Amino acid sequence: SNKSKIFFPDMNSQKCSILLILQPEEENKNSLYDYLIEKEFDVFHAKTVDEGIFKARECTPDLIICQNEIDNKTGLQIFKLLYHDLIKKGTSFFIFMPDYSKEDVLIGLEMGVDNFIFLPFDKSALTRKIEHQLSKVKKIRILETESFKLQFESALVAKFVANGSQIIMMNPALEKLTGVKSKGGKSLKIDELFDFSEKEDSLIDFRKCMN
Fold it and tell me: Which of 7, 94, 124, 160 matches a 20 to 30 Å C-alpha distance to 46?
């Protein structure tokens, strides 16, 4: 089971599955925080942006769910502040919005936000969405193991690891082949490394690969 025993970590805790950056609201049956606790997820509830950013950088939550507007900042602005930490640690990021906004969703997906939650949320669908993302994070974190790093770095074949359209790791063989160096920890987009504009077949193959 993906469920875990309930605990309420304090700021000295080194681990939580979900970091919820959400301002306190009146208790109600549809409260996101109450629902996550009810489903027995390990949750730390940060009530301010500063507290949330501190916790996100202090430990390694598997998933951050951030309120869309908190302390005069939007969810997208907070995502941007944490972007390099999220990439480095393999942490997923959801934005919790009271209403659906097509423009915000399109911008968020383009920036790299993993998913969105809207009110009113379907409880069973939300549980599946979160559990799927937590499972995905565990698989992604294999990249942090020493055995993977050794194999990846020493491979004679050019290799890279991507999260969506963002290249998050390049091995020396690919750097040598393309003449492109990693940007000092900054992620590089796939279309910055490869040119798919020459042939339509190449662009179609790229889209197949991305999907």
Answer: 124
The whole-number pLDDT of residue 179 equals: 85
For residues 29 and 35, give the distance between their C-alpha atoms in angstroms, rounded to a whole number. 8
pLDDT tens per residue, range 198-210: 777 777 877 777 7
Sequence-ordered list of residues with C-beta below 8 angstroms from that of 57, at least 6 positions apart, any chain: 82, 85
Closest C-alpha among 102, 98, 144 to residue 121: 98
Calpha distance 141→92 (Å, rounded): 11
pLDDT at 138 (0 to 100): 81
Question: For residue 163, how far is the Cα from the chain centroid?
Answer: 9
- Judging by DSSP bridges, how do beta strands 18-21 and 63-67 pair with one another? parallel
Q: What is the DSSP letter of 183?
A: B
Read off the pLDDT of residues 114-155 as tens digits, 9 standing for 90 and up.
Answer: 999 998 888 899 999 999 999 888 877 777 778 888 999 999
**Secondary structure element (H or E) that encloses residue 82, with its range:** helix 75-89
Write down how long the chain is. 211
**Side-chain-side CA neighbours of residue 91 (13 Å):** 29
